[in-house]
């Protein structure tokens, strides 16, 4: 008869001195001072998740430089709406990143 493997949660624990991968990556980002750049690239990569598909589809360029978010919007009415909602954009991004990543929004 074949033996079956049964997972035993009580016996399955991490050995001392072993760091989880998430913690190791976080430590590396902090050690090499890459956290800010990583967060900036995350915002650019997940722009559609943060702002929604309707806004993301009309956005040509998104980048962050010196705590300023630069946006190129191809729709003039949408740009006017977003100019009025600058503080909401800043709040959404900072809440998503759980830090003060963006202080200002500039439309180019």
Explain what the structure shows.
The model has no long low-confidence stretch (mean pLDDT 90). Helices cover 49% and strands 16% of the residues. It is built from 6 helices and 3 strands. A hairpin with a 2-residue loop joins strand 1 (59-65) and strand 2 (68-73). Strands 1-2-3 form a 3-stranded mixed beta sheet. It is an alpha+beta fold. The termini are far apart.
Radius of gyration: 21 Å
Q: How widely separated are the two ends?
A: 71 Å
β content, as a range?
15-25%
Which regions are unreliable across 5 or more consecutive residues at pLDDT < 50?
none
- Main β-sheet description: 3 strands, mixed
The shape, in one word, is: elongated
- The total of beta strands comes to 3
Query: Largest beta sheet: what is the strand line-up?
Result: 1-2-3
